[in-house]
Amino acid sequence: MKKRCRHLKKIQDIEPKSSECEACKISGESWKHLRMCMTCGFVGCCDQSKNTHARKHFEETGHPVIKSLEPGEDWLWCYKDKIYLKMPRVS
Question: What is the DSSP pairing of strand 83-86 with strand 75-78?
Answer without folding.
Answer: antiparallel
